[in-house]
């Protein structure tokens, strides 16, 4: 299997089937060799069956999110816009039941691990700490860093597209295509080492917003592992905010 050059990255879906369809069409037109998704297909304003059909038809490599697990287990059905197992098709249930928690990919810049939280823990968050949000450390991620098998880790769950650099691994959060707070997706070029971010406009049209180097920027914080988090982080955003 050849190493991936251009990788389309779609974050947590939450059944945004219309946006998913537009993101897939856009990424394929832009030349994405492979497309990945961080899961959480369930629980949102759209259709789970349609979302799953799109993922399956376009060959999107997808991991299971905590909302997908909760749906299958009939747990936490009090969440907003919750879906219920009984309303899904048999094909959709089978798709969700067979989703892995982790997928490993080979890129032109090194091995990449796709998961929803961190590894098999679909509820784990990683955050070096800011004024508004306390830090979140992860022994699971520290183990992955120590093992040195992967150069990149892409996850979701946090719904905030950002990049955290460690000495031996770069973590990218894929964000989400849900809601009105910077919903969008990304295209990573591992040969040029660039990340192109896209967002959805008011009519769900695709807008190019920001290009970021995949490499650590000058004077940007590089951590050894999550135990070295200081709680005083200036996030490296993978999207453009109007106040930027």
CATH fold-level assignment: Purple Acid Phosphatase, chain A, domain 2
Please identify which CATH superfamily we are dealing with. Answer: Metallo-dependent phosphatases
Radius of gyration: 17 Å
User: Treating each run of at least 4 consecutive H or I residues as one helix, how many helices?
Assistant: 5
Could you describe the largest sheet, including whether it forms a barrel?
Answer: 7 strands, mixed
User: Unreliable segments (pLDDT under 50, ≥5 consecutive)?
Assistant: none
Number of DSSP strands? 13
**CATH class descriptor:** Alpha Beta
Protein structure class: alpha/beta
Shape estimate: globular
Number of domains: 1
**H/E element sequence:** EHEHEHHEEHEEEEEEEE
What's the architecture in CATH terms? 4-Layer Sandwich
Rounded mean pLDDT score: 95
> Which percent range describes the beta-strand content?
25-35%
Give the fraction of residues assigned to helices: 10-25%
How many angstroms does the end-to-end distance come to? 40 Å
Describe how the helices and strands are arranged.
Elements (H helix, E strand, L loop, with lengths): L5 E5 L6 H13 L4 E4 L10 H10 L3 E2 L3 H8 L16 H8 L4 E6 L2 E6 L23 H9 L4 E4 L6 E5 L3 E4 L10 E6 L4 E7 L5 E8 L8 E2 L12 E2 L7
Parallel strand pairs: 1-2, 2-3, 5-6, 6-8, 7-12
Antiparallel strand pairs: 1-9, 4-5, 7-8, 7-13, 9-10, 10-11
Helix pairs in contact: 1-2
């Amino acid at each position: 299997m050849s190493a991936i050059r251009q990788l389309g990255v779609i974050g947590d879906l939450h059944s945004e089937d219309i946006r998913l369809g537009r993101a897939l069409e856009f990424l394929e037109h832009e030349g994405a060799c492979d497309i990945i998704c961080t899961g959480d297909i369930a629980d949102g304003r759209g259709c789970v069956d349609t979302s799953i059909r799109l993922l399956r038809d376009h060959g999107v490599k997808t991991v299971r999110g905590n909302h997908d697990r909760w749906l299958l287990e009939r747990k936490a059905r009090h969440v907003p816009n919750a879906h219920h197992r009984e309303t899904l098709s048999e094909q959709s249930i089978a798709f969700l039941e067979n989703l892995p928690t982790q997928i490993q990919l080979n890129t032109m810049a090194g091995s990449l691990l796709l998961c929803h939280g961190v590894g098999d823990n679909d509820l784990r968050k990683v955050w070096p700490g800011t004024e508004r949000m306390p830090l979140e450390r992860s022994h699971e991620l520290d183990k992955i860093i120590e093992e040195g098998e992967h150069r990149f880790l892409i996850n979701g769950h946090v719904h905030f597209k950002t990049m955290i650099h460690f000495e031996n691994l770069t973590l990218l959060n894929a964000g989400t295509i849900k809601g009105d707070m910077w919903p969008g997706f990304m295209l990573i070029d591992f040969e040029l080492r660039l990340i192109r971010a896209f967002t959805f406009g008011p009519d769900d049209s695709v807008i190019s917003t920001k290009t970021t180097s995949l490499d650590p920027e000058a004077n940007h914080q590089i951590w050894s592992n999550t135990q070295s988090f200081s709680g005083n982080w200036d996030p490296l955003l993978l999207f453009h905010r109007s106040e930027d």
